Amino acid sequence: MSVRKNLLLLAAGTSVVAATTCNPLTSTSCSADTALAGSFAEDFTSASSYFTDEKMPGTIEYSSDGLAMTLTEQGDNPTLTSNFYIMYGKVEVMMKAAPGTGIVSSFFLQSDDLDELDIEWVGSDDTQFQSNYFSKGDTTTYDRGEFHTVSEPETTFHNYTLEWAMDKTTWYLDGTAVRVLENTTSEGYPQSPMYLKMGIWAGGDPSNSEGTIEWAGGLTDYSQAPFTMYISKVIVTDYSTGSEYSYGDQSGSWESIQCKDGEINGRYQQALMDFAELTNGGTVSNSTTTSTTSSSSAVASSSSTSEIVSSEVTSSSTKATTSSTKATTTSTKATTTSTEATTTSTKAATTSTKAATTSSSSKVSTVSPTTVENSSSLEATKSTASVSQTSSSQAVKVASDMANGITASFGLAALPLLLLSLL
C-alpha cells in the first residue's frame, strides 16, 4: 500500500473518543452487555427488534426492498445500533453504498473498551471499499487499514461478511476472502464483546478538517442531496452462549470476559450451521434454553422475517434418546441431551472447514488461509460533521473532528487522514 494511503488511513484513528458512556478498562461499574447468543436474519421490511434508531438527524426508511438511510442536509447522520452484543461470531450485510463526494457509508463492530472491526465506503470512489481494525482504541500506528477492489458498490448490491473468530478475523466480498487478520498481530487483536452499528455521514462537510475532507474525496455538495445507502439483508450469528457478557477485570482480554449461564464459543458449531442455513435463504428455530448447544440437519422454519436461535436446541430421535453430562455425541439414531453438551443430531449435520488462500485486490497482496462459510466481507466508520478547527496544524484539526463526536457515532476509523497535509 502506498505511503499516501497509509497516511490517509492514519487519520481514521487519530484520536480516541469513547463510543459508550462506560469503558470497562477505566471503570469497574459498567453494566453487563446483553448477549445475542443466537442467530438471525433481518430483511428490514419494517423496523427491526434487533436494532435501535439512534434518532440522529437524517432519514431511516423501511420497505419491501429493505432499509434506506438518507442524508439530506448538513448535519445528517442516520444511525442504527444493535441492542445485543456478540462474543466472536459472523456478520453479513447485503448492501449498496451511498454515492456522493464526501459521503461515507459505514458498517462495523465495536466494543465498550474500543475494540473495533470496520468496513466503509467513500462515495467518490466507486471501485473500492476499506477495511480497518482497532484494539482498545490504540491509534498510534497507521498501517491497519486496507483497500479492496469492488465493482460498482454504489449501484450494485454486494455481499460483505466479517467473520470474527478467536484465532483470526476474515473479511469477505461476495463469498471470497479479501483480508485475514491473525490474532498474533503486534498491534492488538479485538477480543471483547461487540455490538453492530451502521450509518451514513458527511466526511466532506466543510466544517471538517482539510485532511478529513480529502480522505472523504472532497467537499460535500449538499445541492446534490439526497444521498442514500441501502441494506437489503443482515445476518448475524453469535459464537458464544449466555444471557449477558461482562468484564471480569480491566485487562480487556477474552479470558476476562464472563458469560452469564454460558461460555465463550459455546455454540460455535451451531452458529456455523445457522449461518449457512440463513445465507441459503432458510430459517432457524427459536429456543429459550441457554446452557447447551446442539444441531439438526432439518432446521425448523418460522414465518417471521427476523429469526433467532439460542445457543441450545434439544434434538430428538425416533429410535432412542440418551442423556449424558459434558459429552459431545454424533449419532444417526440416538440423540444426546445435556446441559453442557454440543450435539450433532439426526443423521449428523456436519460443518466442513476449508482453507481458502486468497489474494485481495491490487491493494492487498496476500491473504492467509481461512474458513469459508457462504460468506463475504465487512467494515465500518462513524459520524458526523461539525468540528471546531482550533489549531494551525492539520493533525490537531483531524483530532478535533474526532473529539467532537465522529468516533462516538461511527467508530475510530471515521477520521480519515491526517498527516496528509504534512507531507
Question: Mind explaining what this structure looks like?
Answer:
With 423 residues, the chain is mainly β. The protein has a domain of 256 residues: Jelly Rolls (Sandwich). It has four helices and 24 strands. The strands form five sheets. Strands 2, 4, 5, 7, 12, 13, 14, 16 and 20 form a nine-stranded antiparallel sheet that branches. The chain has a seven-stranded antiparallel sheet with strand order 3-6-15-8-9-10-11, with no helix packed on it. Strands 1-17-18 form a three-stranded antiparallel sheet, with no helix packed on it. Strand 8 and strand 9 form a beta hairpin. The two termini are 16 Å apart. The N terminus and C terminus are likely disordered. One of its GO terms (molecular function) is endochitinase activity. Its EC number is 3.2.-.-. InterPro entries: Beta-glucanase-like (IPR000757), CHR-like (IPR017168), ConA-like_dom_sf (IPR013320), Glycosyl_Hydrlase_16 (IPR050546). It is a lipid-anchor; GPI-anchor.
**How far apart are the termini?**
16 Å
The major sheet is characterized as: 9 strands, antiparallel
Supply the CATH architecture of the domain at 3-22 and 47-80 and 94-234 and 362-422.
Answer: Sandwich
Low-pLDDT stretches? 1-7, 10-18, 288-408, 415-423
Sum this structure up briefly.
InterPro entries: Beta-glucanase-like, CHR-like, ConA-like_dom_sf, Glycosyl_Hydrlase_16. With 423 residues, the chain is mainly β. It contains four helices and 24 strands.
